[in-house]
Write a structure and sequence with these properties.
- By secondary structure, the protein is of the alpha+beta class.
- The chain has a single domain, classed as Glutaredoxin, CATH 3.40.30.
- 34% of the residues lie in helices and 16% in strands.
- It is built from five helices and six strands.
């Protein structure tokens, strides 16, 4: 086998490994990523093609935890218009999400009647961050990386990352709902 053929095989193998592992560098849209569902099994972002998605890193024992109520209300108000709220539990900030996936799901349902999709717990910052979060940093820059729980990313129907909101922006704030309306009208 010639040098060119070996290089081509290596390049294709690297590409396939990057795509199948959810590699941030190879992604062209949010639809290229997958989480695990909190109930188990895959939760591919491609499931949400054609819908806007508000991706929120969450925690059960945080000063911002009451935002679950606003996220649920936003989900109920906008679900029929094409918005998906996607909760991503993470234990990165203050160890405020220490429980198991089952504990998290039970907490969200019992305390906030959450019925929007939740992913299994992942890391959202640092070297072990989920590939979606690495891609978000590459796409929007380090200034838009989560600094705490309840950081929000808005993805449009085509999988393009269109906005980021810090934890202090409430789910039903004018700033966020205007961005959601704009993403839904594209």
């Amino acid at each position: 086998m010639g040098k060119y053929a070996v290089k081509k095989i290596f390049a294709l193998t690297t590409l396939l490994i990057g795509l199948t592992s959810g590699g941030a560098a190879m992604a062209t849209s949010a639809h290229d990523f997958s989480f695990d569902a909190i109930e188990g099994g895959p939760l591919p972002m491609s499931t949400f093609k054609g819908k806007a998605v508000l991706v929120v890193n969450t925690a059960s024992f945080c000063g911002f935890t009451p935002q679950y109520e606003g996220l649920q209300a936003l989900w109920q108000e906008y679900q029929g218009k094409g918005l998906v709220v996607l909760g991503i539990p993470a234990n990165n900030f203050g160890a405020q999400e220490p429980g198991s996936d089952q504990d998290i799901k039970q907490f969200c349902e019992a305390n906030y009647a959450v019925d929007f999709p939740l992913a299994a717990k992942v890391s959202v910052v640092g070297g072990d961050a989920h590939p979606f979060y690495k891609w978000a940093e590459e796409s929007l820059g380090a200034a838009n990386v989560p600094k705490w729980n309840f950081h929000k990313y808005l993805v449009d129907a085509d999988g393009k990352l269109v906005a980021a909101f810090p934890s202090s922006i409430k789910p039903q704030s004018r700033e966020l709902t205007r961005a959601v309306d704009a993403a839904l009208s594209r």
